[in-house]
Design brief:
Elements lengths: L7 E2 L2 H15 L6 E6 L3 H16 L3 E2 L8 E6 L4 H13 L1 H6 L4 E6 L5 H10 L5 E3 L7 H9 L20 E2 L10 E5 L1 E2 L10 H5 L3 E2 L2 H13 L4 E5 L19 H9 L6 E5 L8 H8 L7 E3 L7 H6 L6 H14 L4 E8 L6 H14 L3 E6 L7 H4 L6 H24 L5 E12 L2 E8 L4 E5 L7 E9 L4 E5 L1
Parallel strand pairs: 1-7, 2-3, 2-4, 4-5, 5-6, 8-11, 11-12, 13-14, 14-15, 18-20
Antiparallel strand pairs: 9-10, 16-17, 16-19, 17-18, 19-20
Helix pairs in contact: 1-6, 9-10, 10-12, 13-15
Bound molecules: 5'-deoxyadenosine (5AD) and iron/sulfur cluster.
The site of 5'-deoxyadenosine (5AD) has 12 residues, from strand 14.
């Protein structure tokens, strides 16, 4: 099956539903509001931009608070138990909103509701929830809302799809972005990797890529609209464009990002996330030869132990990972490197954990995202019998953070004295003083004295490093 055979337009039924809800919303004196709450990763942020876009097309004003809303959408995450618990707790608080205003519609979207046990829980224990909508089906939002506006039945339903089912890539969904100068641009959806701890392949379905022409058109439109920073999104961007037979008839990710980096305009391209098993030399070369590709590589390591990596089904070794880091630094010595680490994976011995610390010391990441292993129902690792006790997980987690904090500070210190290109995002007030706040090309947070406004690109001299932020002055 080809990775590109699926792009479809929004179904006619969706377009009709948008128009019908819109006419209901314009018939009332006060325009109703919609509130969208997002948990989880950048992909969810990007999906929420579509939820807001569809809500706006349906004639809702976008609200900042749930209390104002006639339509509440919670876009959930399932990656760790903590994320699910937080979402369920907030959904619990909406009970009294519905009691006060029975016309309120509450929809639960995203990864959590692609799981049968969660859909049943919402259906049975949260009777005021109107519908669930999994991450691969968000384009159906208008139909769900219309059904409830017409007094139709609740729709908390789980449909089991075959494991090899490839959901549609739906183009042309309305979109409402938060800022003009920074944007997420999804280039693919889903994941085929089945890392043994991860729920994503089950809840987001099989990998599918957007067509290059659609991606390029969106990038061009963003740049024409003044966007300065575009993050290409996918669970594993390095496998963008791959067909079931392993071929890349439309080019691979390196060729895609290289082409986008040749578009006119003052912008930077980033990408998230890469899988080390697919990070290619061609991508490294493309990055090095294009100034518009930001000097930042986020490359999840997960563990420094080959035994743990094998049980995680990651399909690379620590040595292979270090080889990629060496090649990146050989051609881009200043590159910012970040990673994801899981501590307390089943069977992780003290020696395995030490191997992870050793890689941190060796690579000297600028920053890490660290996670305590959370068993996910339905994944192989949740069934492993050698689960690590909670107190051991927490103790290792604290040691990991302590080591990385020192390294992050030392890495930040290397920036002192440099003049960096910074995209201003807003302001930061500390101890009565207001600074501009922004991100360097490497993605580091910087507060600086100057007159830059959000969306401006400034040249900033770094005067002082702190563990988690740089401080500087605009040139
Ligand atoms: N427990 C803890 N962390 C996890 N991640 C994914 N699944 C789990 C889990 N079950 C982490 C990985 C991944 C990041 C997005 O979340 O490090 O790269
Ligand atoms: Fe999860 Fe692995 Fe896919 Fe990333 S590559 S989304 S960690 S299964």
């Amino acid at each position: 099956m080809s990775a590109f055979q699926m792009p479809v337009c929004m179904p006619a039924s969706t377009v009709r539903a948008i128009a019908e809800v819109r006419s209901l919303n314009t018939a009332v004196d006060v325009q109703p509001a919609a509130f969208v709450l997002t948990f989880g990763c950048q992909q969810n942020e990007a999906d929420s931009e579509h939820l807001r876009g569809m809500a706006a097309e349906m004639g809702y004003r976008i609200a900042n608070y749930a209390e104002e809303a006639e339509l509440i959408l919670v876009n959930t995450c399932a990656i760790r138990e903590h994320a699910e618990k937080k979402a369920l707790s907030i959904i619990g608080q909406y009970k009294h909103l519905k009691a006060a205003r029975p016309s309120l519609i509450i929809g639960i979207c995203g990864c959590m509701v692609a799981q049968q046990h969660r859909v049943e829980e919402l259906k049975n224990r949260y009777p005021y929830v109107d519908f669930t909508l999994d991450a691969a089906s968000i384009h159906r939002l208008p139909e769900m809302v219309l059904e409830r506006r017409r007094g139709g039945r609740r729709a908390c339903t789980y449909v089991e799809l075959p494991r090899d089912h490839v959901p549609d890539v739906v183009e042309g969904m309305p979109l409402r972005r938060e800022t003009r100068w920074r944007a997420w641009l999804s280039i693919m959806y889903g994941c085929n990797n089945f890392c043994s701890y991860c729920i994503v392949p089950y809840v987001r379905g099989r990998e599918r890529s957007r067509a290059p022409a659609d991606i390029e058109a969106e990038a061009r439109a963003l740049i024409a609209d003044g966007c300065r920073d575009i993050t290409l999104l996918g669970q594993n961007v390095n496998s963008w464009g791959r067909m079931a037979d392993g071929s890349f008839p439309e080019g691979d990710f390196a060729s895609l990002i290289g082409r986008l980096a040749e578009l006119d305009g003052d912008f930077r391209l980033r990408f998230m996330t890469s899988h080390p098993k697919d990070a290619s030399d061609a991508l490294i070369e493309t990055m090095a030869s294009h100034e518009k590709i930001a000097r930042h590589f986020h490359l999840p390591l997960q563990s420094g132990s080959d035994t743990v990596l094998a049980r995680m089904n990651r399909r690379y070794t620590a040595e292979r990972y270090l080889g990629i880091v060496d090649r990146l630094r050989a051609v881009m010595p200043d590159i910012t490197l970040t990673t994801d680490i899981i501590v307390g994976f089943p069977g992780e011995s003290e020696a395995d954990f030490e191997a992870t610390l050793e890689i941190l010391r060796r690579v000297r990441f600028d920053m890490i995202y660290s996670f305590i292993y959370s068993p996910r129902k339905g994944t192989p690792a949740a069934e492993y019998t050698d689960q690590i006790p909670e107190e051991v997980k927490h103790e290792r987690f604290d040691r990991l953070i302590a080591l990385q904090n020192e390294i992050s500070y030392e890495r930040n210190k290397l920036e002192e004295g440099k003049v960096l290109r910074v995209l201003c995002d807003g302001e930061k007030t500390q101890e009565g003083k207001t600074f501009c706040s922004g991100r360097t090309d490497g993605g580091k947070l910087i507060y600086f004295a100057g007159a830059a406004r959000p969306g401006d690109v400034a040249q900033v001299k770094v005067e002082r490093a702190e563990p988690f932020v740089l401080r500087g002055v605009q040139m």
